[in-house]
Amino acid sequence: MRCYRVKGQEKIIGSCQFPVGTTAYCLLLITACFLLLTPLSPAFAIAQTIHDVYFKNTDYELNVYKIYGAEKGKTMMIIGGIQGDEPGGYIAADLYADMALKKGNLIVVPRANFLSIIEHKRLINNDMNRRFQSPNTRGYYEDRVVEILKDLIGESDYLLNLHEGSGFFSERWVSDLRNPKRFGQSIIADADVYTSKKSGMELRLGELARRIAEAVNKNIENPEYHFKFNNHKTFERDTKHSEQRLSATYYAVSTREIPAFGIETSKEIKDIGTKVRFQTMVVNAFMEKFNIVPEYPKISLESPRLKYLLININGEKEFVVQNGESLNVKNGDRVRVSHVEANYARGLIVDFSGIGTANDFQKDFEINEPTRIVVKKDGFKCGEVDIITNASEFADKKSGIPVVRYLVVEINGRKQVLSNGEELKVVRGDVIKLIDVIADSAASQDIKINFLGFVGDKTNNRGEDRGYSINTANDLWIKYSKDGKGLQYPIVVNYRDKKIGEIMVTIEEPRMDYIVIRHGNGIKRWYSNGESFTAAVKEILEIVDVKTNVSGNIGIKINLNNGRINEGAAKTVRFDGGSGKTEIIVSRGGIIMGRTIIKVSDPLALAEQGR
């Protein structure tokens, strides 16, 4: 499950709705998915990711990913990019934003200082990693971001701050690049042992860091790259690193009293992939130590590459422009990049050369001279598109029958661009909206888009289906499907009643693969569609997760055949009488996708007990 929240205007994207029913004289605890919108504590265990966005559409937008495992456990926070000239740290942190967890929780902030990453500078106004203890007036954006980071540290049990450092740390002087004053290839802590002022408990930071370094170094062949514990002795009066008293790790240890470490790979290592690999090795070792268990690793790295831009002109026409192509506009046209398609989804910025700000994505610009739109990921260029001025009206450039380039659609509210002749695969119950068509030498208003098997205006069917929301479960006529079974429908593009393009929609039936249930003894079990199990009388069962072929589990509902609790409520229900069994039913839009049977030894009772 994945939830997306813009602070101040919260909404769910790709989440489940779990109306709840009852078990046979068992107490069935089902957690409603709308609870994703409330702050979660480690005690609330359900596999999900919550994506919070702070300062949206500013140059310093802050994205935070809270990843909760299926089993409760400790919470580790990972910060990357607090200083923008250290790509090894923020690229490594970004890899954990997509991770799913079996146990424990992660709070991932891949790009704490997005503007400094864009500019590839250590700082813009102030060093963000020197703002955690100073009087914070919020006069600079760095201070506003730090206030959010402080709150997140307060939700965590451990903190890792990912960096790149100069040279190679060594406890003795070896050379100018390898000595005690260098930071690279070290695990930094502010003390060897910190004694809590509140509880008197000891945080044995040095012992933990040495064990992590030892475990990681076993997998690093070159001893020159081995990690070492680097004690900055920040709490001591004669420390050589007094500036670290303003850092995130010092704040975490001294104020929140949690273990905190700076992970430093060396800037002398020029291969970014190697630096990222070293960072992830250390992070993974800490996760293993803290018993934070990944469900699957997603540690891969490929060069960022722009595929295409969706460019809007004057709020009317929209064009798909591939990487390296050019777009002709007239002087005075207002141009906006409305969508970026690349092999990465995060860390992308758009730059109109010579105009605009640090990030020009979804901003209008009046074009009066040729310019170039450069797309970067984390400050590294990944593609560009040229804008050429003084062109004639687009529809007049060519004559004859237009050529369809792309069809722009929305699937469950998410925009997608399809090439002519491409197949669109959906699951029955997905909602399709036809947005527009991009064709050479023709304005889109001269073209009709017809979803065969759907009628938008039943009083006047003009064969134009743009703008309608088409529910693939209820709105399609089987007799007009290409296969006659309701599984394939063509979307036809016509120009003056002549077919010039087609997209084939293939519909897959919704399917439950398995459901995850935690039994009263705390053990989780996976049950496939049609499988049954026996529950003890009065046993408390918790539905932890459900795996289906529906992207994001959009529209999924869970209930029981003997009853149902109001949608969005999390309650416990008890029933009397009946056949001695009940079924957990997974459905979508009235279509049953699967069921799991619960068998009990006692009769059912009709008494409802609210939680």
Question: Can you lay out the helices and strands and say which pair or pack?
Answer:
Blueprint (H helix, E strand, L loop, with lengths): L1 E5 L2 E2 L16 E4 L17 E7 L7 E7 L2 E9 L7 H8 L5 E10 L4 H6 L21 H14 L3 E8 L2 E2 L8 E2 L6 E4 L4 E2 L6 E2 L1 H13 L10 E4 L16 H7 L5 E7 L5 H18 L3 E4 L9 E8 L3 E6 L3 E3 L4 E10 L5 E5 L12 E3 L3 E7 L2 E9 L14 E9 L2 E6 L3 E5 L3 E10 L6 E5 L17 E3 L16 E8 L2 E11 L3 E7 L5 E5 L3 E3 L5 E9 L7 E5 L20 E8 L2 E9 L12
Parallel strand pairs: 1-4, 3-36, 6-7, 6-8, 8-15, 9-10, 11-14, 19-24, 27-32, 35-39
Antiparallel strand pairs: 1-2, 4-5, 5-7, 7-16, 11-15, 12-13, 17-18, 17-20, 20-22, 21-23, 23-24, 25-26, 25-28, 28-30, 29-31, 31-32, 33-34, 33-36, 37-38, 38-39
Summarize the structure.
The protein has about 600 residues and is mostly beta strands.
Search tags:
611 residues; mainly beta; Aminopeptidase; Immunoglobulin-like; eleven-stranded mixed β-sheet; four-stranded mixed β-sheet; 38% strand; flat; disordered C terminus
Explain what the structure shows.
The chain is mostly beta strands. Among the domains are: 43-156 and 158-289, Zn peptidases (Aminopeptidase); 306-396, Immunoglobulin-like (Sandwich). It is 11% helix and 38% strand. It contains six helices and 39 strands. The strands form nine sheets. Strands 1, 2, 4, 5, 6, 7, 8, 11, 14, 15 and 16 form an eleven-stranded mixed β-sheet that branches. Strands 3-36-33-34 form a four-stranded mixed β-sheet, with no helix packed on it. A hairpin with a 2-residue loop joins strand 31 (488-495) and strand 32. Helix 4 (205-217) packs across helix 6. It is flat, with a radius of gyration of 28 Å.
